[in-house]
Amino acid sequence: MSAESAFPPIDHDHGRCVDLLMSAVERLRAEQTLRLTPQRRRVLEMVAASHVALGAYDILARLGGGNGRPMAPISVYRALDFLLQHGLVHRVESLNAFIACTRPGARHDALLMICSVCRRVAELQSPAIEAAIAASAAAGHFLVTHPVVEIAGICRVCRAADR
Ligand SMILES: [Zn+2]
Ligand SMILES: [Zn+2]
Ligand SMILES: [Zn+2]
Q: How many angstroms does the Cα of residue 7 sit away from the middle of ligand 1?
């Protein structure tokens, strides 16, 4: 993915993003013992529905509006924990919200560009940034347990709307 395409255009075919994620999920289920219960799948589908970061309570509110049974807050938190552990979603620490991973199944640092206007989040793929973090950590004998890089800014769509 090139740097320019990190933020997908508003009118892109988002079905393809979802298909990509779901085919990765099916692959993980076949390879490992990924137990995607119906509740976990509903939460994942909710998070994956757009590139806008959703908080746990946004997810709860949207789940309640569907035809399925409402979920308890604790079940949503547990489902999110499960999805985090399996690398299917990222927590956007600065927003206390979640987005679907665009490279599920591959170990990588969370390198996120976050639009502070529309809350859309783009995941960067940058081996150079990951290598720099690893090298700096190694030089300082620092054990990295939770590598997260969050870059706040304003996306192209929101900048255009502001003009
Ligand atoms: Zn998309
Ligand atoms: Zn990711
Ligand atoms: Zn924006």
A: 9
CA torsion sign for 125, 131, 136, 140 is positive
Hey, what are 95's tokens?
């927003």
| Torsion sign across C-alpha atoms 117, 119, 122, 124 | positive
With the C-alpha atoms ordered 132, 5, 94, 18, is the resulting torsion angle positive or negative?
negative
* SS3 state at 101: coil
Residue 54's nearest CA partner among 132, 126, 118 is 118
The answer to whether the pTM exceeds 0.90 is no
Q: Which CATH class is domain 14-162?
A: mainly alpha
Q: What pLDDT, in 10s, does the model give residues 94-123? A: 999 999 999 887 788 899 999 999 999 999
Query: CB under 8 Å to 42, separation ≥6 — which residues?
Result: 63, 68, 71, 79
Instruction: List the beta bridge partners of residue 152.
Output: 114
User: Cα of 47 to ligand 3 centre, how many Å?
Assistant: 17
**How far is the C-alpha of 33 from the C-alpha of 123, rounded, in Å?**
26
